[in-house]
């Protein structure tokens, strides 16, 4: 664990170097002496002390390590999300670690492009494309999907229970948390012709390639997987096997504002994002929800019998420890934010996780209190024009996962006596990669 107050936290008396869209010293804001490393294991395992100090001392802070402006307070994060004209979404999917030519070649061979479609789309085609997605995940569809989610959860947890009976323990991240959202998404969107394990591998590779800090060799491996994924999506979108009622079928009949059909590249880009966003993030959420529930005194025992407790617990985890920890925006022109002037083209990193621990909005943020009056006011799903259209599905899947796990595996405990599990440590995604339980 990192020390409670990181002694290497940036002070504000030095000057930082200049960079395009950066140069805080020239703009008169406070600049750090020591770099905060957003990928450092200490930060990833225990980011709270850093997030607290950022909010308190440098709520709009230029990070020379990444060239990003970190925005940490709830009010400012919300203001940015609600103004997509000034704070554009165009950089949402840009690779955090620049791709070497060899990796770009691999992607080019697979025909990989990511034209504006959903999260990175600030153009007039966005509302219509978003409607196509939202139709598949509206409240009615999600409510109708509950029996499917329960069936898949029970199926996976029966296997986990047998393993626990046979061996004394089971790892629930890879056997349950990751698989449940993937299988549910495949059913809801009518995805066929690929194994869940392959979809999970492709999706994880995409997250690591675009949001991670992989070595050049690892970038090549990841680019191969992402290329395969993109190629498969392209073949599926081009082929005529998708039923009209499936997501791909709906994209094929979609018309752009000018009446033209969607080009293949944009349809593939929409699928690419939805297939990743629709499962990886929810699997990460379920892993954290389970770990937190297993270590909170009394919670595991009470979840099955208390109506609404699983749902409220999921939202409290989303507030305090969301899987999507940050999200990016770029300024369309110079702007003032939290008393700091930021330049045209500045890349912002919205600290969604930090905003959920803002004591101005959530008193005693460190306490897990599922019955807070504003338990759902967190920004874990964003807000405004690009707010996550899968929020209802993600919440429902995580609550069902917790309820079914707590009732089917009632006597288990978290294996904590050995080392902590590895953490997913990407710029925008964070979660424990293991939930090992035993009798
Ligand atoms: C715990 C799970 C999830 C979290 C924490 C999450 C979080 C987010 C966040 C922070 C955004 C960006 C919002 C913004 O820019 O204002 C987003 C966008 C999006 N999410 Fe999710 N998401 C989750 C699950 C899902 C699921 C299950 C789906 C689909 C089934 C999904 C589909 C999308 C799409 C399509 C967008 C882009 C929307 C747009 O630009 O209009 N997400 N999500």
TrEMBL record:
One of its GO terms (molecular function) is heme binding. Keywords: Heme, Iron, Metal-binding, Monooxygenase, Oxidoreductase. The lineage of its organism: Bacteria, Bacillati, Actinomycetota, Actinomycetes, Kitasatosporales. This is Cytochrome P450. Pfam families: p450. Residues 1-27 are annotated as: Disordered. Belongs to the cytochrome P450 family. InterPro entries: Cyt_P450, Cyt_P450_B, Cyt_P450_CS, Cyt_P450_sf. The keyword Ubl conjugation does not apply. PROSITE patterns: CYTOCHROME_P450.
């Amino acid at each position: 664990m990192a020390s409670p107050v990181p002694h290497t936290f940036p002070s504000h008396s030095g000057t930082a170097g200049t960079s395009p869209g950066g140069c805080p010293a020239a703009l008169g804001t406070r600049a750090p002496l020591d770099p905060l490393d957003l990928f450092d294991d200490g930060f990833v395992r225990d980011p709270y002390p850093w997030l607290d100090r950022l909010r308190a001392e440098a709520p709009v802070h230029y990070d020379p390590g990444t060239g990003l402006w970190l925005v940490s307070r709830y009010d400012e994060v919300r203001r940015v999300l609600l103004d997509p004209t000034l704070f554009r979404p165009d950089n949402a999917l840009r690779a955090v670690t620049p791709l070497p030519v060899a990796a770009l070649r691999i992607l080019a061979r697979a025909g990989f492009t990511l034209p504006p479609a959903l999260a990175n789309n600030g153009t007039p085609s966005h509302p219509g494309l978003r409607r196509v997605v939202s139709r598949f995940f509206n409240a009615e569809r999600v409510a109708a999907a509950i029996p499917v989610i329960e069936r898949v959860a029970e199926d996976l947890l029966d296997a986990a229970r047998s393993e626990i009976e046979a061996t004394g323990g089971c790892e629930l991240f890879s056997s349950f948390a990751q698989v449940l959202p993937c299988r549910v998404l495949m059913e809801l969107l009518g995805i066929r012709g690929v194994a869940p394990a392959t979809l999970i591998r492709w999706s994880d590779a995409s997250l690591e390639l675009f949001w991670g800090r992989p070595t050049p060799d690892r970038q090549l491996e990841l680019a191969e997987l992402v290329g395969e994924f993109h190629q498969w999506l392209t073949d599926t979108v081009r082929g005529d096997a998708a039923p009209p009622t499936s997501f791909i079928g709906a994209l094929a009949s979609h018309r752009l504002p000018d009446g033209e059909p969607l080009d293949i590249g944009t349809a593939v880009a929409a699928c690419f994002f939805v297939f990743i966003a629709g499962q990886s993030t929810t699997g990460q959420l379920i892993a954290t929800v389970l770990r937190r529930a297993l270590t909170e005194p009394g919670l595991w025992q009470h979840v099955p019998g208390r109506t609404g407790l699983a749902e409220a617990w999921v939202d409290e985890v989303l507030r305090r420890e969301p899987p999507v920890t940050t999200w990016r925006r770029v300024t369309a022109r110079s702007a003032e934010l939290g008393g700091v002037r930021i330049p045209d083209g500045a890349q912002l990193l919205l600290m969604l996780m930090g905003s959920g621990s803002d004591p101005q909005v959530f008193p005693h943020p460190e306490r897990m209190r599922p019955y807070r009056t504003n338990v759902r006011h967190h920004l874990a799903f964003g807000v405004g024009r690009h707010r996550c259209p899968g929020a209802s599905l993600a919440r429902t899947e995580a609550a069902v996962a917790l309820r079914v796990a707590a009732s089917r595996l009632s006597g288990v405990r978290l294996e904590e006596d050995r080392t902590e599990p590895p953490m997913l440590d990407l710029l925008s995604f964070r979660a424990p990669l293991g939930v090992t339980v035993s009798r």
